[in-house]
Amino acid sequence: MTHTKVAPGKRPPAALAGGMPMPGWPERIGKAVFLTIICAFVVVPFIGVISTSLATPEEVTRAGGFVMLPTHGIDLGAYKSIFAGGTVTQALLVSCFITGVGTLLALLLTCTLGWALSRRGTVGNRKLLLLVLISLLFNPGLIPSYLVVQQFGLLDSLWAVIVPVCVSAFNVIVVRAYFVGLPDEIIDSARIDGASEWKLFWYIGLPLAKAVVAVIGLFYGVGYWNSFFNAMLYLNDSSQWPLQLVLRTYVVNGVEIGGQDLGVGSEALPPQTSIQMAILMISIVPILAVYPFIQRHFAKGVLTGAVKG
């Protein structure tokens, strides 16, 4: 049997080491071309949306409504019209309220429920955990959900958009799994020092679960920011509509935006396409701004909680 000699200080080829052979240049080039095409499908429309929202009215009119790259300068007229105090400004404030209050309430309920389910000896622990698991399998349906909201008197209230979805069974399971994996020695030593259950949760559980809380908070925040279906069902007053419902009305359904909707005169109104793309950008930018700060917690937060469960 012959042996291949390898020069000192050099690693043997993957095929000789018993591993998979390294891909050749044609395979690498093929992968690069494929990924480039996929990225182009994502990036090119996004660039077009930004360019159309910033292009001059003359350029938008000449291009027929969609500008790939503005060549006649940048015009902020669409954004100025949106923030003039009309419907879009009101919808943006409503979305900020729903997202902020809803995310804080959802995190509080999810973390406290996850902590209670993770503590052995809690009254009704197994029964409550069983209910949480059952809710993962069965959806109550549209009509029963509407009747519950109606019976609680939440119709035409922003709480109808916040409360029904403020606890996710999946997020509770992830948080519980993380709390279960905490070392018992830390909890026991804190109890010996006289810490109550609330102090254990607030000063030990939450600080150690920052990664999980950050990821779960992002899930809730994105859900509340993008929610429009519940608002469409439960809110009849257009002054309480969130930004996504306004976006659906003016962009998806193609309803024309008038000067009275934006709080400006009709003579100063930019092209409809520019206003629609500007609304679309405003609905996207907040989430894009938050993701880079939370991204580093994804693997540590969700995967750790899932594996420990």
Automatic annotation (TrEMBL):
BP GO terms, sorted: transmembrane transport
GO cellular component: plasma membrane
Matching Gene3D superfamilies: MetI-like
Alphabetical UniProt keywords: Cell membrane, Membrane, Transmembrane, Transmembrane helix, Transport
Originating organism: Kribbella amoyensis
Residue stretches spanning the membrane: 32-55, 91-116, 128-147, 159-179, 200-225, 275-294
Protein name in the entry: Carbohydrate ABC transporter membrane protein 2 (CUT1 family)
Highest taxon above the source species: Bacteria
Keyword Phosphoprotein: no
Limits of the ABC transmembrane type-1 domain: 92-294
Position of the signal peptide: none
Subcellular location: Cell membrane
Alphabetized Pfam families for the sequence: BPD_transp_1
Lineage start: Bacteria, Bacillati, Actinomycetota, Actinomycetes, Propionibacteriales
Membrane topology: Multi-pass membrane protein
Main location: membrane
Similarity comment: family membership: Belongs to the binding-protein-dependent transport system permease family.
